[in-house]
């Protein structure tokens, strides 16, 4: 059993790199996801791993965490050759991982969650299913203090802000060092994707500090963040490692070019073209007990209105209420001047309102259907003639959109669950962007998980929808994104609107918005 990886007196080589891959490849039936990767991760370094959607980052991480077995190549951890047949083997070798989606059980305490990775030993805090509470909390406090967290181990995870939850996840991942008694390697797969700006800054600081404890592979789509956090940056493209640079030797523009193959275009916010008297969407005095109150805003055809606020500000819930995916108990919502009552999602779609949720995997797509089927799920458009489906027309439509949004692989017949996260997201977005008659488009974090090049394309498509006269209500990933792409920014705090900036007549800085958010 590989839990004994470094046992029997074979201590890890103290001078060897934390990780060495040589010629590692992995293919699926139609795609080579990872191709001949050779790299070294030194100890006590934070190394960034970046690449376009579908470049192969997740597949490589899955090889390192024992989920996929490589077709060829070798892996060495601290100088010793290893073979990971299952995830426990990778844990036993000292590799911990924090996945994109938070994996803590929110109804358990911090200490209980941390104990779930505990190593069985004769005096472990959890024995035969029995908790030794004092020891459990004490051990958790020790692990947390290693990563600079002062969270009380007795706190129920559900009561913690997201940034603290991420620190608990990292602390838990770090416990792999108890297996090897050597420098651990922690993989952080987009740990900041769900965080807001101020929380991201805290987490970035803590990640930089992790190099004192071991090595880190940090995956992120935000190039500025990668530049701030990492000592070195690895760039993947179409399954291959195309660059391995010291952060000090590379610029953000070069990274973009290495990843995507062309220089970054400067973002443009077009002037709203279709401002008519009748707003496409009008929200007046909207409230839901305990969640948001007295929210009013208008979005004219062709206008993009961004809602900014921290987690808990109520902006997600307002967006859900507009689409009928969530409730409100006071106020009114008007679409195209008509008040909508007993709004449910089906009616919203029929009335020309679309919503792209942040939780695309659970709410936005059907993994067991093909890319083409997902695309035409809501609005079959040209793919139907009367009651009849026209499979060839559907495929043609899908092919066009796969081209426009550069969905990879270009195979609309493939089940959507087989695509990489970012490419799934492009399909979910395309489902609505292809609808030319759309009146209102509600987008909750549309760029989350998209690589910088794809984000640029999706931004252009959002601008194109505005230019066609669609009204866009947007929850942007960052304040900067909101200021860049919206015509109007509405700030929310604790369920209320605290400020509205019409950027066509006044300017606002990130600081102005932050002051009204927190
Ligand atoms: N289980 C699988 N079956 C078939 N193809 C797969 C499977 N897993 C990954 N792929 C393919 O391998 C390629 C690399 O995907 P991977 O998920 O590693 O990309 P990624 O760089 O993590 O992208 P993203 O940033 O979008 O998550 C993609 O073309 C994907 O469709």
From TrEMBL:
Entry keyword Repeat: yes
Any one GO molecular function term: ATP binding
InterPro entries per UniProt: AAA+_ATPase (IPR003593), ABC_carbohydrate_import_ATPase (IPR050107), ABC_transporter-like_ATP-bd (IPR003439), ABC_transporter-like_CS (IPR017871), P-loop_NTPase (IPR027417)
Protein name, per record: Ribose transport system ATP-binding protein
Limits of the ABC transporter domain: 19-263, 276-517
Keyword Nucleotide-binding listed: yes
Sorted UniProt keywords: ATP-binding, Nucleotide-binding, Repeat, Transport
Taxonomic lineage of the native organism: Bacteria, Bacillati, Actinomycetota, Actinomycetes, Propionibacteriales
Superkingdom per UniProt: Bacteria
């Amino acid at each position: 059993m590989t839990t004994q990886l470094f046992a029997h007196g074979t201590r890890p080589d103290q001078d060897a790199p934390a990780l060495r891959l040589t010629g590692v490849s992995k293919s699926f039936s139609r795609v080579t996801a990872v191709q001949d990767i050779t790299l070294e991760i030194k100890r006590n370094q934070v190394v960034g791993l970046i690449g376009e959607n579908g470049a192969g980052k997740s597949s490589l991480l899955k090889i390192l965490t024992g989920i996929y077995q490589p077709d060829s190549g070798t892996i060495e951890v601290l100088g010793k050759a290893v073979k990971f047949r299952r995830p426990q083997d990778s844990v036993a070798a000292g590799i911990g991982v924090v996945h994109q989606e938070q994996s803590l059980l929110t109804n358990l305490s911090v200490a209980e969650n941390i104990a779930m990775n505990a190593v069985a030993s004769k005096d472990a805090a959890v024995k035969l299913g029995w908790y030794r509470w004092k020891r459990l909390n004490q051990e958790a406090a020790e692990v947390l203090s290693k990563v600079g967290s002062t969270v009380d181990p007795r706190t129920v995870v559900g009561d913690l802000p997201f940034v603290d939850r991420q620190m608990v996840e990292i602390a838990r991942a770090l416990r792999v060092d108890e297996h090897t008694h050597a420098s651990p390697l922690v993989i952080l797969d987009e740990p900041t994707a769900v965080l807001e700006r101020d929380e991201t800054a805290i987490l970035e600081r803590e990640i930089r500090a992790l190099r004192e404890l071991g090595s880190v592979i940090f995956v992120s789509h935000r190039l500025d963040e990668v530049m701030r956090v990492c000592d070195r940056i690895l760039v993947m493209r179409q399954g291959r490692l195309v660059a391995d640079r010291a952060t000090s030797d590379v610029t953000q523009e070069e990274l973009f070019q290495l990843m995507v193959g062309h220089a970054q275009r400067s973002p443009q916010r077009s002037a709203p073209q279709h401002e008519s008297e009748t707003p496409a969407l009008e929200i007046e005095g909207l409230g839901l007990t305990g969640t948001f109150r007295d929210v009013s805003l208008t979005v004219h055809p062709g206008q993009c209105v961004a809602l900014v606020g921290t987690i808990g500000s109520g902006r997600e819930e307002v967006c859900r209420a507009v689409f009928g995916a969530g409730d409100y108990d006071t106020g009114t919502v008007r679409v195209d001047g008509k008040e909508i009552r007993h709004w449910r999602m089906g009616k919203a779609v029929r009335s020309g309102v679309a919503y792209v949720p942040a939780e695309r995997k659970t709410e936005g797509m059907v993994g067991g259907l093909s890319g083409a089927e997902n695309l035409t799920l809501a609005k079959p458009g040209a793919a139907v003639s009367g009651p009849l489906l026209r499979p060839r027309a559907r495929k043609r439509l899908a092919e066009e959109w796969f081209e426009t949004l550069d969905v990879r692989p270009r195979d609309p017949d493939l089940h959507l669950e087989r695509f990489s996260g970012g490419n799934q997201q492009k399909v979910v977005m395309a489902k609505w962007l292809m609808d030319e008659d759309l009146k209102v488009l509600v987008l909750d974090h549309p760029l989350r998980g998209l690589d910088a090049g794809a984000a640029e394309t999706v931004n252009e498509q959002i601008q194109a929808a505005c230019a066609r006269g669609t009204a866009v209500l947007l929850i942007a990933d960052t304040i900067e994104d909101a200021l860049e792409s919206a015509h109007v920014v509405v700030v929310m705090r604790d369920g209320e609107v605290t400020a509205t900036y019409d950027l066509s007549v006044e300017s606002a800085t990130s600081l102005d918005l932050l002051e009204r958010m927190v």
